[in-house]
Amino acid sequence: MQNNTQNTSSGMSLIVKTVARILAGMIMLYGIYIVAHGHLTPGGGFAGGVIIAGSFILLYLAYGATAADSDKRKWYASLCESLGIFGFWIVAILGLVFGTYFLFNIFAKGTPFHLFSAGIIPVCNVAIGVEVAGALVGIFITFAAVKLLERK
Amino acid sequence: MVNSIPLFVVIPLGCAFILPVIGRRWERAGDLFANLVTVTLLGLAIWSVRFIRETTVYHVGGWGAVNGIPIGIYLVRDGLSIFMLVVVNLIAFVATLYSINYMEHFTDKTKYYTLFMLMLAGMNGVILTGDFFNLYVFMEIAAIASYALVAFGTEADELEAAFKYQVMGSVGSGFILLGIILLYSYTGTLNMADVGRVILDKGTSNLVWFVNVLFIVGFGLKAAVVPFHMWLPDAHPSAPAPISAMLSGVLIESIGVYPLTRIMYNVIGFDGVLSNILIVLAIISMMIGGLLALWQWDYKRLLAYSSISQVGYILLGIGLGTPLGLLGALFHLFNHSAFKGLLFLDSGSIVYSVGTRDLREMGELDRRMPITSKTNLVAAMSIAGVPPFNGFWSKLIIIIACIQAGRYGVAGWAILGSILTFAYILKAERYAFYGKAGRDLADVKESPPFMCVALIILAVICVVAGLMLLPNVRETILFPVVNTLTSGTEYIWRVLR
Amino acid sequence: MIHYLLGILLFVIGLYGVLVKRNLFKIIIGLIIMEYATFLLFALVGFREHGTAPIQPGVAGKVFVDPLPQALVLTAIVIGLGTTALIAGLAVRIYEKYGTLDIRKIKKLKG
Question: Which one, B2, B78, B263, C24, has least CB within 10 Å?
Fold first, then answer.
């Protein structure tokens, strides 16, 4: 019961919270689908990353932002961002390492229009997806934290 | 070694991406990695000088030309790029060395180095790229990092300066992007050399003229040429000193003057009207920058106005379009990076030790801070144009070039500008180092070792840079760089070959 | 031709907002309008009448829209996101320091 009153004291009503909890997973799954099929259908790393970030932001909006752990979450978001873009960098320099061009498509290209095809492009898409999701959540948390500071 | 070309962008980018992760626990990671990166890049840039006569094209991702039409992003390394790379990476090396001690009393050094590396990657990218949209992207990377760096202290005036800077910078980027779009709609390609070829085939039209105007406004905003200079005197002094040195020393040149020069000379083709526009803008910049600098009591603000005035000299040489004028402009660009970087670093040392930027509160610093005052004297003599320091030679060449081109009035303005320079720099010297102290400065000490080393390196460069004009040296270093510009649209065939 | 002119008009409206408005966030909105006008113009440059999407097989011989501006606009939008986030952050911090969003009252720097 204690837990329940705490939950309702911050954030929106119970209905919003429940719906957000159910929807967040689906939205995230859709985002992952967009990222994974970036080389086959419209979309890709950036669009999918934005959708993934949207699922986190939805939860944030429904449950309300608490200032206490926003620093830690911001760190996780920024870690995601840095590692995502660093992953992209690694993939990009693989070409240089193997003696071809920077950003060269060094992997086998596979059959067109299959999920595992197009060489490094899906890998890059995943990296970009992680990076964009982290960055957007980080930006959101930063602005949310500012608002809390003002209310005090 | 073709593969060394992308390294100028790749290495600082990698450093910028990994630093936030490892720098959270390991405070010194930023110092170590950033200095390693800048030393490596400086070494690479100096090593590249041996290719100064060649034009090397690098196809990113292996996407070369199809049926003679370039489809990928090209990185082009020719004389001018190598020259700019040396300048940028030299100042970046000195600035990171200086940052080790200077940034101690700022809160988050890791973030500082991350942004610094992004800015460096952006500038190197702008210099190397042979593609219009790629130019825009790298320019924005450098610009966004510099907006954040100006606001780094997060004090009220720094935030305000950064806001103003970003608004003006974004408007400039908007104009540049609009120009690129219109150029794409006219030529159907974004590769600089290919755009040049299509314009040669189709001939220029009113649209190309409109694009020229957009580029002059856009890059003029980035380079703080006078009607568009309002943001610079706020933004440059507000940044931490090494960043001021980077912004004034190389950023306005590498994302403002350099792309404009490259596009005017090598892509669209230079002519008399453009030449007159640039010369008029240059004279206005020289005069207004110098006059307003004379007014200032804030040392860093004085230096910022002086940057506007010195960029005027560079533009004047470029606007003249004669080989001698271009030689003077490029040499002055190098010299301006060295002495303006040094002056800003010196002002940083004063801020570090005395805690003020107001000239009236300084004084007698020549006894308290010997290294800072001696190096500052060298830089001041250079910028004022006292022989045998480097600034004298470059200004002399520009003035001789004006006379040679038959523009005696312009030469007169340039001489007047250098008298103004002499006046404001003398004022700063007198009040900061030799005048009576405005308040008690007994406990002021010389700055920490790394800062002094950085100052001495730049001071030595200010003294010896004049040697670049010696008969054998200028033929190997400066003339090939001038040739890349004077050969004009031959650039197209060298790239598309 | 008319839609290109409309794009330019939108650009000028944004520029007007940047130059004339006195509220920090209105200036930012002006900047965003300017940016998006250029993106719109860029996407229009790649438009071909009755063109199809260029990603399907068997597209050879058909008219298809120019895919390059679309990819570039996406890149430019990402850059726009970065600048907008940064400048909004700056505006928020300025509000914390000065307690106002009116640029006439925010003038510590002058000269």
Answer: B2
A127 CA: distance to closest CA in chain B (Å): 13
The pLDDT mean for chain B works out to 89
Q: Do A150 and C96 touch (CB under 8 A)?
A: yes
For B277, the token pair is 């526009």
Looking at the complex, does the CB of residue C78 fall below 8 Å from at least one CB of chain A?
yes
Query: Using CA atoms, how far apart are residues B471 and B342, in angstroms rounded to an integer?
Result: 27
Structure tokens at A56: 């986190």
Q: Looking at the DSSP assignment, which residues form a beta bridge with residue B69?
A: B66
Rounded to the nearest 5 degrees, what angle is found at the Cα of B239, between the Cα atoms of C108 and A84?
125
- Domain-wise residue ranges, chain A: 2-151
Q: Would you state the structure tokens that stand for residue B435, as one six-digit string?
A: 């005048």
CA-based torsion, B86, B92, B98, B101: positive or negative: negative
Q: Choose, out of A102, A128, A131, the residue to mutate when testing the contact with B (most B CBs < 10 Å).
A: A102
- pLDDT, position A152: 47
Distance CA B152, CA B116 (A): 11
pLDDT at position B91: 94
Structure token pair of residue B363: 């004084």
Average pLDDT by consecutive 10-residue portion of chain A (152 residues)? Answer: 47 86 93 88 86 91 72 86 90 83 78 76 90 91 71 50
Contact C83 B166 (CB under 8 A): yes
Phi, psi values for residue A114, rounded to 5°: -115, 160
- Give the one of B20, B59, B61 whose C-beta lies nearest to A105's C-beta: B61
Q: What is the pLDDT of residue B326?
A: 92
Q: What is the pLDDT of residue A6?
A: 46
pLDDT at A147: 60
Domain borders along chain B are 2-496
> Of C15, C83, C87, which has the smallest distance from its Cβ to B163's Cβ?
C87
CA distance B71 to C54: 16
Tell me what pLDDT residue C111 has. 44
- pTM score, whole prediction: 0.93
B141 chain-A contacts, CB cut-off 8 A: none
Would the pLDDT of C55 be above 70? no
Q: Which of C68, C95, C86, C69 is nearest to C28 (CA)?
A: C86
A50 and A81 Cβ atoms separated by less than 8 Å: no
**What pLDDT sits at residue C7?**
87
Q: Assess contact for B124 and B70: CB atoms under 8 A.
A: no
Residue pair B335/B384 in contact by the 8 Å Cβ criterion? no
pLDDT means per 10 residues in chain B (497 residues)? Answer: 82 91 85 92 92 87 82 89 93 93 84 93 93 93 93 87 92 93 90 90 87 93 89 89 92 92 88 90 92 89 92 92 91 93 91 84 79 90 87 91 91 92 89 75 78 92 86 84 86 85
Contact indicator for B151, B158 with CB cutoff of 8 Å: yes
pLDDT (0 to 100) of residue A150: 56
Report yes or no: C111 at the B interface, CB cutoff 8 Å.
yes
| Residue tagged 């209105």 (tokens) | C26
Q: Which residues contact B488 (CB under 8 A, 6 or more apart)?
A: B265, B266, B269, B270
Cα B282 from Cα B226, distance rounded (Å) = 8
Which domains are present in chain C? 2-51+62-98 (1.10.287.3510)
Tell me the shortest Cα–Cα distance from B235 to chain C, in angstroms: 10
Instruction: Check: CB of residue B383 under 8 Å from CB of residue B279.
Output: no
Q: Which two tokens stand for residue C56?
A: 């399907």
Kindly determine whether residue A143 and residue C92, on different chains, have CB atoms separated by under 8 Å: yes
